[in-house]
Write a structure and sequence with these properties.
single chain, 108 residues, alpha/beta, five-stranded parallel sheet, globular
């Protein structure tokens, strides 16, 4: 599964996913600074299976119509690695399910 981590997600979070996940960051892709709408379209076009973010406003700012890209929002008090790490098993569970092009919320 090919997963894209948003700029707001600590890069080291990617190392917490099993080897069956191909995890890339927005920075690695050269997309840093891109607006969310453009970022979602590029991720979709490059064949990513899901987009992982902590930006809770994305679901109100972006229209996913026409994209085959699920967006997973990790909800924690801050976007620090130690606060997001406990959410990874639930994110993996969501990714292992029947994904649809919609917003998934994973609360702390």
């Amino acid at each position: 599964m090919k997963l894209l981590l948003d700029e707001s997600v600590p890069r080291r979070l990617g190392s917490l996913f099993p080897d069956s996940f191909e995890v890339h960051t927005v920075q690695q892709m050269g997309w840093a600074g891109s607006k969310n709408g453009d970022l979602l379209r590029m991720a979709n076009d490059y064949g990513f299976d899901a987009f992982l973010t902590v930006d809770q406003g994305i679901e109100y700012q972006q229209n996913l119509t026409g994209l085959a890209l699920p967006v997973i929002i990790m909800i924690a008090p801050r976007n620090r690695l130690q606060e997001l790490q406990p959410l990874v098993p639930e994110v993996i569970a969501v990714l292992s399910g029947d994904l649809q092009s919609r917003i998934y919320r994973v609360p702390a």
